[in-house]
Amino acid sequence: MPRKTKYQLSKTQLPEIKEAIRKDPRPEVRQRASAIHMLHLGYKPEEVGEQLMVSKPSIYNWHRRYREDNLDGLANQPKGRPKRKADEAYCQALEAALDQDPSELGYPFSVWSVERLRDHLERETGVKLSVSHLRVIMRQKGFVYRRPKHDLTDLQDPDAKAHARELIEELKKGSAKMTKSGSSLWMKPS
C-alpha cells in the first residue's frame, strides 16, 4: 500500500508560505506557495491542480521540491545547458599532455590515442568526458590526428648504419666494383 503524503505545514513553515504568497517577487513562487497552502488546508492535489490550472504531477512535483529546498525549491530552475565540464584548466592540461611524450609521464606507450588521453586527463583534472566530446574540444583547439610513422631507429646498430652509409657513398661514386652476391637476382657485370 502506498505511503500517504503529509501535506500539513509546521508552525514555522505556515507563516513563511503565507509571506511568500503575498510578497515574493517571483510569480512562480507565489503560485506554487498557494498550491502548498491549499494542500495544507486539506484540498486534494487534483482539486489544487484544477484551481490553479496545472497538472496533478506538477502539484506533486512542487510539494516534493518544497519539502527538499523550502521556498528556493519553488523557484524556476535555470534553463539551458549545464556548466561546461571542460573549463580552461582542463584545456591547459590537454595542451600540456599533448606537448609531452606519454612515456615521459610514465606510461608504457609512446603515442596518445584519444581514449588514453581522456583517461590521463581524468586522472589529472578529475573531469570525465566522453571520447567524442574530447575529440570536439581537440578539433576546436586546432589539434589534428595524424597516424604515427613506425620508426626503428632505436633498434638499429649505429656502427652497422655508419658502415652501410659508407658503402652507399662508394656505390654512388662508382668507384666500387660490383661483386657477385647470392642475395640478389639483379647484377651489373663489371
Task: Give the SSE layout.
Layout: H1 13-23, H2 27-40, H3 45-52, H4 56-69, H5 88-99, H6 114-125, H7 131-140, H8 158-173
Explain how this protein is built:
This protein has helices spanning 13-23, 27-40, 45-52, 56-69, 88-99, 114-125, 131-140, 158-173. With 190 residues, it is an all-alpha fold. Among the domains are: 13-74, no CATH class; 88-140. Helix 1 runs antiparallel to helix 2. The chain starts with 12 loop residues before the first helix and ends in a 17-residue tail after the last helix. Mean pLDDT is 85; it is low at 181-185.
Note the gap between the termini: 104 Å
Query: Taking Cα atoms only, what radius of gyration do you get, to the nearest Å?
Result: 37 Å
State the helical fraction: 40-55%
Largest sheet: none
The class by helix and strand makeup works out as: mainly alpha
E-strand count: 0
Mean pLDDT level: 85
- One letter per element, helices H and strands E, the order comes to HHHHHHHH
Strand residues, percent: under 5%
**Would you identify the regions where 5 or more consecutive residues have pLDDT less than 50?**
181-185
Morphology:
rod-shaped
Helix count, DSSP H or I runs of 4 or more residues: 8
Care to give the gist of this entry?
With 190 residues, the protein is mainly alpha-helical. The chain contains 8 helices and no strands.
